[in-house]
Design a protein that fits this description.
Structural class of chain B: mainly alpha
Largest sheet of chain B: 2 strands, antiparallel
Number of strands of chain A: 7
Strand order of the largest sheet of chain A: 2-1-3-4
Structural class of chain A: mainly alpha
Order of helices and strands of chain A: HHHHHHHHHHHHEHEHEHHEHEHHHEHEH
Chains: A mainly alpha (about 550), B mainly alpha (about 325), C mainly alpha (about 130)
Number of domains of chain A: 2
CATH topology of chain B: Fumarate Reductase Cytochrome B subunit
Largest interface: A-B, 116 and 96 residues
CATH architecture of chain B: Up-down Bundle
CATH superfamily of chain B: Transmembrane di-heme cytochromes, Chain C
Distance between the termini of chain B: 75 Å
Strand content of chain B: under 5%
Largest sheet of chain A: 4 strands, parallel
Order of helices and strands of chain B: HHHHEEHHHHHHHHH
Oligomer: heterotrimer
Chain lengths: ~550, ~325, ~130
């Protein structure tokens, strides 16, 4: 990549004035640092996608199949018949420009093709040329253009510079959602073997091994055992979770990122401690060991193939319902896709908290509860003994993940929980949170190492809002409910707002959770001394 | 170029009408044949377009949620911005269609020293867009006095209200002023805001010039180059009663220019971005309830896919699972 | 069609609105304005003429009346010189209505047809000039 641009270099390079040349006559430049490596033959073969070969997007020859244009055009025609969103969004944009400065990649790069409207026009121009009468007759005059290799490369470059965060669709007067167009664009790319390894690798791993990281069953248990040791060191309590256990009441599914690297592992320790304290009859699964779904960043079919494991495993184990961990796109998929793909889950029961008796009516079809909903209900009913002062060394703000925000509307639950377990909570500016939240900059499978320039540019708006509350209130911890956030924002904070840490909400919960029979805590889950170190809990 | 050609096209349309009427005496063509054809294309074209969208399924329930979801009973749901009921969805759609709710959120992003990104409220586009669409609608309704024998009372009341300032004679319509100002604003912003200029296509300038032409010719006809309105109404009434006839001392050329531009707009409508009029109602990110965890949404083309079953998985990892103490199906 | 019921309902409303002018007039008599010029004064005119040519009066009479109102009441000028050089007394009652004494069959014919409601007679309903 372009050698590690410094923050001030990125800021200096942002110019919102579009180039002199018309966008259709400005050929795409595939810039290092702004793209991810091409998917490897091995990954593509694992899931049986077409045109498996090793290729490098930086090279001239992309090793495309014969008649790739025909394949793409057939692919478009097919999808125009399947997705009303796609067909409609090709037809009705008026190019008012309301979406233009809403995209984090545009804000951070100034590249006009990162304006949502132009990203979509990349596709619309081809749609007009081959699928509308004015486009066929008038060509460029009607905003139409031929599908050639440069257009294809432009598609690839810019559809992998969109994180499907849907912020544009909040502002669009017709609700045009660029995510829908990016999803179609990426499906078409797949027909030619043009995916990126950072999503295809995890997809292949998840398909074969049950999770994106490719953790095999014994690795999962041993990773969790490491956490159990840490929990015992900190609390003196031996937690004893079960795996693939038939007859458990609840199946718990979380993104595998939580099993692998901090700060996600601290969140995972939070789940383990909470469930232990509740005495919950639950089990982990090594087969359905992934809540997230990188298939969703590939094609709907692939997403469905990966997602199928959750219900299949719930059925095999005979559980009553499912609880899902903290993750962003996982919950968009669970909320808006899972039941349609792989339902109906008529072999499960409507989730009912064994602790409070609350029936989660809002999940009566999918039978899957968000852990933050579950915990919020516990706290509201006074079922948890909490000592929020254990989080007093933290000044916390909350980042709404794009998918839970705009694909679900998950705003109050995490705030309620965070405020219950932390004494210092501050909101970022209102235009950067809730439905107007900014993407971390690395979502939808783009959090690779080779596209760091892209990620830091995309992460700028979120980071800048964090900087605002850091400077104003001394905020030093960014809470969220997303595994990609925990990984990506850590990098982004180090880059843009050093000194701000990143945490899952359940790490904060576990810090504050006063467990039965625990020893006096001296450190938090990260092993850092507590503010009133050695002191008694004062609840 | 993207703006020039549409501008020239509109000028040519104006000249066509002038020459056609003044030099070639094609009053019947411009006053009867073309308006009928345009109305038919408009009606059939829009219906065709909407039906073509309707024939495509909505495989997934994908509302863009802009407020708190329905969840635990003590958390207040945002019933309109994140609806779970038909009433909520209908309200959301009404706000969208009549008040441009989403556009009202518009912000202007600025990168300042610091660096500091700031987001300022920016309602001008919303205001101009809303003014333009509403005045266009009111003007259309007002024009019903040319198309109805006994002009309906609401139309007469609208006309009274619209001219209540009693400026000049014929009385100045407030909608005329707002309409022209809004269209002009929408046009000027396409030239002056660099990003908007960059994304604008000929297909964005053409309807603006055309609509501006319609507005200007209408205003000229009412206030400046006056024509015999009784003659206009005799013609329009003959059209709507399917007994088309050009009155003896019929309306002046300016009327035919106005009518021809309107015909052009109507005929162009179904083939252009203007179909957003119908499209907004069908937008799946707005017209669906966010209830997919409560009620299963069915995808009509859902098909079975190849999956990696638990059995295959256990076959791959049985020994490792046993070693790790994980229960297996087959020992 | 998917969600066909709602879409067809929407299209029916749309088609109803578009064709409203055609439907509304079904069965309504085609009544064109029928101006009468046979008032006593006009009948006696050798050359029947108005203050300005007919075509001008058809399109511009409201403007002329507005100008007259302004001249007479705001400038105090009661003399109008026409395009042919003839002088007229600026007065709705004494000039216009002197010949066109049949408001119902003259003014109202077109105004009703066009659904316009001039406010001339808001003030002129019982004009003093009428008494002479």
């Amino acid at each position: 990549m372009a050698k590690e641009m410094k923050p001030n270099e990125i800021i200096g390079s942002i110019d919102y004035n579009p180039p002199k040349t018309d966008w259709m006559s400005t050929p795409v430049q595939i810039k290092p640092g702004m793209f991810c490596w091409g998917a490897k033959a091995k990954s593509i073969n694992t899931v049986g996608f077409p045109n498996a070969r090793d290729w490098n997007p930086g090279e001239e020859d992309w090793k495309l199949p014969e008649n790739w244009q025909g394949t793409v055009l057939e692919g478009i025609a097919d999808r125009l018949k399947k997705y009303r969103s796609f067909r409609l969004f090709m037809d009705i944009c008026v190019r008012c420009g309301a979406c233009a400065d809403k995209c984090h990649f545009y804000i951070g790069s100034g590249d006009p093709k990162n304006m949502p409207v132009l990203r979509a026009e990349l596709m619309r121009s081809v749609y007009r040329r081959y699928f509308t009468t004015p486009g066929k007759m008038l060509g460029k005059l009607a905003g139409a253009r031929d599908l050639d290799i440069n257009v294809l490369k432009e598609w690839w470059y810019y559809f992998f510079q969109c994180t499907e965060c849907r912020r544009c669709s909040v502002f669009c007067p017709y609700g045009i959602d660029t995510a829908e167009i990016t999803i179609m664009g990426r499906e078409l790319m797949n027909l030619l073997g043009l995916n990126i390894e950072w999503t295809m690798g995890p997809v292949a791993a998840c398909y074969m091994k049950g999770n994106h990281l490719g953790l095999e069953p014994h690795t999962i248990t041993s990773n969790i055992e490491f956490m159990l040791d840490d929990i015992e060191t900190i609390t003196g309590i031996k937690v004893n979770p079960s795996f693939n256990r038939k007859g458990a009441e609840i199946l718990f599914v979380t993104p595998s990122g939580d099993l692998f690297a901090d700060p996600g592992t601290y969140t995972c320790m939070g789940y383990l401690m909470l469930f232990h304290e509740l005495g919950l009859d639950y089990t982990w699964s090594t087969y359905a060991s992934e809540g997230g779904n990188f298939g969703f960043f590939t094609s709907n079919e692939m997403a469905k193939r990966l997602n199928s494991k959750i219900y299949a495993e719930a059925k095999r184990l005979g559980v009553k319902y499912i609880i899902g961990g903290e993750c962003g796109h996982m919950w968009r998929v669970l909320n808006q896709y899972m039941d349609t793909w792989n339902g109906p889950a008529d072999f499960l029961e409507v989730p009912k908290s064994p602790i409070t008796g609350t029936v989660f009516e809002n999940t009566k079809s999918t039978k899957m509860v968000h852990i933050v909903e579950f915990t919020a209900d516990l706290i509201k009913n006074g079922k948890l003994k909490l000592d929020p002062s254990r989080n007093d060394h933290l000044k916390v703000t909350f980042h709404d993940s794009c998918n839970t925000a705009r694909g679900m509307g998950f705003f109050e639950e995490p705030r309620f929980v965070a405020k219950a377990v932390c004494n210092n909570f501050y909101e970022m500016p209102e235009d950067t949170i809730r439905e107007k939240t900014f993407c971390c900059g690395s979502g939808s499978g783009l959090n690779a190492g080779e596209d760091m320039d892209l990620r830091m540019r995309g992460g700028l708006p979120r980071a800048n809002a964090v900087k605002f509350v850091r400077d104003k209130y001394g905020v030093n911890m960014l809470a969220n409910i997303c595994a990609i956030d925990r990984a990506a924002l850590t990098t982004s904070m180090n880059y843009w707002v050093p000194g701000v840490g990143v945490t899952g909400v359940h790490e904060l919960v576990a810090n504050a959770l006063v467990m039965k029979g625990e020893k006096p805590r001296t450190t938090d889950l990260r092993g850092e001394p507590l503010p009133n170190a050695g002191g008694e809990s004062d609840v | 170029m993207r703006a020039l050609l549409p501008f020239i096209t509109v000028i040519v349309l104006v000249l066509l009408a002038i020459v056609g009427v003044e030099a070639a005496n094609l009053q019947f063509l411009f006053g009867v044949v073309i308006p009928y054809a345009a109305a038919a294309i408009f009606l059939a074209g829009v219906i065709y377009k909407v039906v073509s969208w309707g024939r495509v399924p909505v495989p997934f329930r994908i509302p863009t949620t802009c407020g708190q979801q329905k969840t635990l009973p003590w958390i207040k749901q945002s019933r309109i911005e994140n609806p779970t009921t038909s009433a909520g969805v209908i309200t959301r759609m009404l706000l969208e269609v009549f008040l441009f709710r989403s556009l009202f959120r518009n912000l202007k992003t600025e990168l300042r020293e610091g660096p500091q990104l700031s987001y300022g409220s920016d309602k001008w586009l919303w205001l101009a867009g809303l003014s333009f669409h509403w005045t266009f609608l009111l003007i259309l309704i007002r024009h019903l006095r040319f198309f109805t024998q006994n002009v309906p009372i609401p139309v007469q009341m609208l006309e009274h209200l619209d001219s209540f300032l009693q400026i000049g004679l014929p009385l100045l319509y407030i909608t005329d002023v707002i309409f022209l100002a809004a269209v002009t604003f929408l046009l000027i912003r396409r030239f002056t805001i660099p990003q908007v200029k960059y994304i604008s296509l000929a297909a964005d300038y053409f309807p603006l010039f055309l609509i501006l032409g319609i507005g200007v010719s209408g205003v000229l006809m009412r206030y400046f180059i006056k024509t015999d309105v009784v003659g206009v109404k005799e013609l329009t009434m003959s059209l709507v009663s399917f007994s088309p006839a050009i009155p003896k001392d019929g309306p002046g050329t300016i009327f035919y220019v106005h009518l021809f531009l309107i015909s052009a707009l109507f005929a162009y409508f179904p083939f252009s971005k203007l179909v957003h009029m119908g499209g907004v109602f069908l937008s799946p990110t707005r017209n669906l309830a966010n209830n997919s965890r409560m009620v299963r949404h069915v995808n009509p083309w859902n098909y079975p896919v190849k999956v990696h079953t638990y059995e295959e998985y256990e076959n791959d990892f049985r020994e490792k699972m046993k070693t790790a103490g994980i229960p297996v199906e087959k020992e | 069609m998917y969600n066909g019921g709602k879409i067809i309902l929407g299209l029916a409303v749309f088609a109803g609105l578009v064709t409203f002018p055609f439907l509304y007039n079904i069965g309504q008599a085609d009544r064109q304005p029928d101006l009468k010029l046979d008032t006593p004064v006009i009948r006696q005119m050798a050359v029947k003429h108005c203050v300005e040519p007919k075509a001008f009066m058809r399109a511009e009479h409201m403007q002329l009346l507005n100008d007259w109102r302004n001249e007479a009441l705001r400038q105090g000028n009661r003399e109008y010189v026409s395009s042919t050089g003839e002088k007229y007394n600026i007065s709705l009652q004494n000039t216009c209505l002197h010949c066109h004494s049949n408001k119902k069959k003259f003014c109202d014919e077109c105004h009703n047809y066009m659904a316009v409601h001039p406010y001339c007679f808001d003030c002129h309903l019982q004009p003093k000039e009428n008494v002479q």
